[in-house]
Each structure stands twice: as C-alpha cells, then as structure tokens.
Amino acid sequence: MTVTHHVRVYRSDEELPRTDQLAWKIAEVAADPVAVTDEVADMIINRIIDNAAVAAASLTRGPVSAARQQALDHPVSVSGPGSTVFGCALERTTSPEWAAWANGVAVRELDYHDTFLAAEYSHPGDNIPPILAVAQHVGATGAQLLRGIATGYEIQIDLVRAISLHKHKIDHVAHLGPSAAAGIGTLLGLPVETIYQAVGQALHTTTATRQSRKGEISTWKAHAPAFAGKMAVEAVDRAMRGETSPAPIYEGEDGVIAWLLDGKDAAYDVPLPDRGEAKRAILDSYTKEHSAEYQAQAWIDLARKLGTARPELRDPENIEAIVLHTSHHTHYVIGSGANDPQKYDPAASRETLDHSIPYIFTVALQDAAWHHVDSYLPARAARPDTVALWHKVTTAEDAEWTRRYHSEDPDEKAFGGRVEIRLANGETIVDEIAVADAHPLGARPFTRPDYVAKFRMLAEPVLAPDEIERFLDLAERLPELTPAEVRELSIVAAPGVLASAPAPKGLF
C-alpha cells in the first residue's frame, strides 16, 4: 500500500531525525529491492522507444548539436568505458554526466515525450538519459536499468502529486534532480545513506526560477532537465565518495520549502510506495502524439476535428472570437492569462510558440493537422490569415475544468476544456474535449504499435533502416539485455546527417 509522508518545516532547534526526512524516505524507496511488474516493464520499454523517437527528430537542431558537441569535447572518465551519445557511433563515448547532458537535451528539445501533471508539471521521461548513461558506464544489465528507471518515474511522479513548484515560480526540474539521483541509486544498488546524500545534493543544485518558461522562451528550456540529470549523476558520484549534502534539504529552517516554496508554515503529504510495494507510477503518465506542451494536446485534437468538419472556421473573416474555457494551469501558463505578448508574436521562438495555446489552436484548426516541424516554421507563423485568426483566440479560466485538472480520480482528471466560437454571422459553435486522443482514456490510446510507429516516423529521415530495426530489437528485449547490449542502447545517425548539423565551438 502507499504510505503518505507528512512534510513540514522544522526550526533548527527542533529535532527531526534523519530517518523522518523526505530525502531519507525517498532513499528508502530507491533502495527497496522490489521486483518490476511486467506491466511496468512494458511501459518503460514504450518510453525508451518514445525518447529515442523524439531524440532522433531533434538530432540536427541547434541546441542538440551544441550539447552533443560539448559532450564529445570531454573524455571518458577513468572508471568505465563511458556512455553513448545519441546520433554518434556506438564506440564514440563520453563521460556519463556529459552523455546525460547531451541525450537529455535531445529528448527534451521538441517537447514531444511523456508527461505527468498534478500539483506540478513534469516530463518523467527526462529520468531515462541520466540513468541509462550511468548504466552503460558501469556495465549494468537491462534488468538493473529497468529497476532504476522504475524508481526515477516513481519518485518524480510522487513529488509532482504533492508539491507545487510553479506556484512559487520554481522550475519543475527541481523534482527531477532528486528522482534521477534516486533512480541511479537503485540501478547501482546503493545503500540508503548514500542515496539520501545524493538526493539532497541533487535537489540543492537544481532549483531555479521558471523564467526559463516565461516571456521569450529560450533554448534553455530543453537544457534545463538535461542539467538536472547531469547534476544527479554528479551528486551520486559525490555521495559514493562519502561526501555529505545540506540537510534537512526539504524541511530545514533555511531549506527549500521554507524559502522557495510555501514557507515556514507549509506542510505537504507526499505519497510513496511502502516497503515491498511495486513502483507503478509510470502507468499514470502519458505520452504525446503532438510536439507541443501537454496541455495543448487535447486542444490540437479538437481543433483538427473542427477544422475538418467546418472548413469555414479557418477563415478569420468568418470569426468574431474564439474563447477556450480551460483550467487555471492552461490559462495562466500557455494561454492569454500568462500576459505574455510573445504568445501572439509571429516572430516568436519555437520554444515560445509551443507554449502558446492561441497559436497552436489556430494552426491546428486551419491545417486540420499538426507537425513537429512544419507547424512551427516562421513562414507558417507569419501567414497573414493565421495571424488575424490567432489574435481572435483567448483563454479563460473555468472552475470546473480547473477542478477536473486537479482531480485524483483518473477517470475524471482532464486537460482540455470547452471552446466557444462566435461567428461573424451571429452563430456560436460550442464543443469540448477532456483528454487527448492518445491519452489512456482518449479516442485512440497509445499502445506499443503507436510508440513504434512514432519512432519510425521520426527516425526514418535520419536513421538507416537497419539501424531502426537494431534499436527496436534491443529496446523490446530490455529486461534480458546483457551489459554489452545495454551499451548499444542508442541510435546512430545515417552517414552525413550529423555532418549537416552545426558543431559550434566553445570553451572546451
């Protein structure tokens, strides 16, 4: 059964035993040698395929090329053979923390992999690059890697269920640092004490503001989770050497909760698996069919449907106004409630546009489709009829959709809303959608064939056919992989692909 751990701030003169601290409880979960269920193992395989798919699609993009070159400019550390880098030949390895960095950016760049939303936002697939990098470097088996990833997902999702970061303008990767450190601890079979120190250090070094997802959103949006993964690897290394970390990191008088979150009077109830309980949190997460912020997924599906059924809605001359009635989060993060003029700017960055639901709904409505590249092209964003319609789209918070967004009932939890389209002729069109088509409760839930199809679609332009089959064969045999096979769990770009990408030089 799940155990709820009550967390509050303690004065320095109050006694808080180490064993009662949240970081210790996380470490106990990570150190618990519970078996991974078949259902969880299958979903982890799905997400490894999903990560590789979106990484393949981003191999030649600027931020990914820069991160990859940074990694390649560092040698392999002396304690192992190193870790692979997405796109590069399998024998071209680097130190695990730098592989976690490069691969983390590749996975995150297109905002196209899995998600879990509750009190906080998260992309729990961000745990995979750092845990896989360490597994390759130390010679772990597929079964060990599986256990590590199950922990990473469990801890991040459990933290996301209970502790809001964005409310205090703290970036969501503050939950990723501890979860990745815990996952690596599980992978390596480390004792509770060591994992505890690593979790504390990983949290301490990965708290940052949400300005990375506000205003003119920069390329750092893709780098932020990769940085958290890199810090997690380094935190584990430091803890393994016997070094200690700030404590109590969550509950301390000058700790994260007291000064970065809800303050000295705050309290949270964090659900964690009991000893011997299987880590199943990954089953509550969901992937993306479309390359955009998760809260836009259902809206894309609704817009595509409306644009197909009513083509006249694509013409701004026919539209007086479009209002998306939705949750607090959607309105204030990717909607007009953010008060970001950049969300209506046709010259805005891709990173900004994929966090603009007015733009996304407009393009999906006009094209009755969504494409991870074409839908964000500057020429597409600047099309006059698109700009005219785009500026007629606003969002509004709706109490019922906010309630459903926060519902703990999986059958009721929703990420969509209701659209009201007022036409110039006086007609009003009203429609709604609760979850994306690809959601487990959606019109077309994603299953293994869908993950494989997504991988093939995104990989075919950059990977050779035999490389696609090689990777899929390895991924689908994950629980039985040998250490040598785990070291080959990467994707190798076809000849000439990486040569066409920028390889910028910097300090290293």
UniProtKB/TrEMBL annotation:
Every copy of the MmgE/PrpD N-terminal domain together lies at 21-267
What sections of the protein cross the membrane?
A: none
Q: Which reaction does it catalyse?
A: (2S,3S)-2-methylcitrate = 2-methyl-cis-aconitate + H2O
Q: Which domain of life is it from?
A: Bacteria
Q: Which UniProt keywords apply?
A: Lyase
InterPro entries assigned to the protein according to its UniProt record, in alphabetical order: MmgE/PrpD_sf, MmgE/PrpD_sf_1, MmgE/PrpD_sf_2, MmgE_PrpD, MmgE_PrpD_C, MmgE_PrpD_N
Q: Name one GO molecular function term.
A: 2-methylcitrate dehydratase activity
Q: Which Pfam families match?
A: MmgE_PrpD_C, MmgE_PrpD_N
What Enzyme Commission number does this protein have?
4.2.1.79
Which part of the chain is the MmgE/PrpD C-terminal domain? 290-478
Q: What's the family? A: Belongs to the PrpD family.
Its assembly, as annotated, is: Monomer.
Name of protein: 2-methylcitrate dehydratase
Supply the source organism for this entry: Microbacterium ginsengisoli
In the UniProt record, the gene name given for this protein reads prpD
